[in-house]
Design a protein that fits this description.
Strand order of the largest sheet: 1-3-7-4-2
Oligomer: single chain
Structural class: alpha+beta
Largest sheet: 5 strands, mixed
Distance between the termini: 72 Å
Radius of gyration: 22 Å
Strand content: 35-45%
Amino acid sequence: MNQISFTKLPLQSIQRVVFILCAATFLQGCGATGSAILTGNRRSAIIPMSVTVYPQPPTVPYEVVGIVTSRSVNGLTQQSDSQNAVDELRKQAASLGANGIILNSVNAGSTLNGMIGAAGASTIALVGGHNSQAQLQGTAIYVRR
């Protein structure tokens, strides 16, 4: 059986392997997730982009449909994480038939990170990126129009 010895591989090959593993790990965290809990009357699902996001309760009559949450991590920027989280929140509310969301909680932030790998006697510095996230929680509502 043939075995690969890392001591016989050129440094450039080891760098590529380490880079590919780090990139795969970084990309694994991308995307948004969410949940919806029905607390009122379920309505027929609607298109997510037709859901209005309210920073405070609207002044027109509405009924509470449920509670929705979303979380987006490791987008390209903090702004993209926030947008992904809003899109996911709309998707969750739309699945309950809600046409509005009152934002209750917004938690967004980012940190810088980096990695250093060692290969033989040489050290390879791998530039990381940022860890960003956006978490939203809101009340899904149906606004009578």
